[in-house]
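JOB MANIFEST
job_type = single_chain_structure
chain_count = 1
residues = 353
[input]
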Amino acid sequence: MKYSIIVPVYNRPDEVDELLDSLTRQTETDFEVLIVEDGSSVPCKSVCDKYATKLNIHYYNKENSGPGQSRNYGAERAVGDYLLILDSDVVVPEGYLAAITQELDAEPADAFGGPDKAHSSFTPTQKAISYSMTSFFTTGGIRGGKKKLDKFYPRSFNMGIRREVYKQLGGFSKMRFGEDIDFSIRIFKAGCRCRLFPGAWVYHKRRTDFRKFWRQVYNSGIARINLYKKYPESLKVVHLLPMVFTIGVIALLLVFILGLGYLDIFGTLIPDGELNTTGLILCIIGLAPLLLYSLIICIDSTIKNHSLHIGLLSVRAAFTQLMGYGCGFLSAWWKRCVCGKGEFEAYKKNFYK
């Protein structure tokens, strides 16, 4: 068998149904599907049973251990030459597996990954979050299918690896967050061939509201420091940008507030009738860069999504992503690098217990 598709699941039966339905439409049919229920209180076995005659599907239910260990559980039972790791909240287009086969036939790879897109059925918030996570103006375009600021590290929402390499490297670590980057780092350190397959993209729902999105990216910022403590060489300049952005936003807001203070203290007009230029200049310096960046995001997203509403939501999504990641990064840097504490994560109850 060529492919084994491994999907860890935690309380997402409806999303599993959508994913399995999309897999029934693949033009490439030499694959099996392994659904690993990670101690869910709302299991998806009945959903999997619906596809017993349509797919070569295997359902497993185990105690909760997190996504990485659930993927390892599935990998131990897989028989395909390549293991394809998907999140339960993705939907694959009809040519997904065919695109992977085409890439592998053209040039072999030990590991690979693809980008993600927003489906037309996604909510405006989901489309805005998807834009933020794939835009050149937030991530450098790396996660949007273009290699820009750093080498491509496969992510667990859409990742493939030869089964022999997976076993050789021991699969995913016990990290709850950043475990896919940890695995990708070990893939590169082992000297394996790792490539981006731009045509092997998926529809990825990601988080459904900004509160959940903040928690996700905050943990991603923490994970980056946890990874740095394990692999100091893995921290690149690009990983510092959200932290720099966060500090920059705070500094600009303080400048703006200072400008308002001048206007309030001295009045909008000074005695001779001239404008209080000091306060106005400080307000402009504080707001102009933020407004310019927001305008760029809004225009770009509006054009790409054909919706001003999504464009405006994308501004919020971009600031949530960069500042959430930046705050998590700074928190972890202080606790781990300054205070010397051990590995940690936040909002654990919102992700796999």
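[summary]
The CA atoms of residues 92 and 260 lie 51 Å apart.
The longest strand covers residues 31-38.
exit_status = 0
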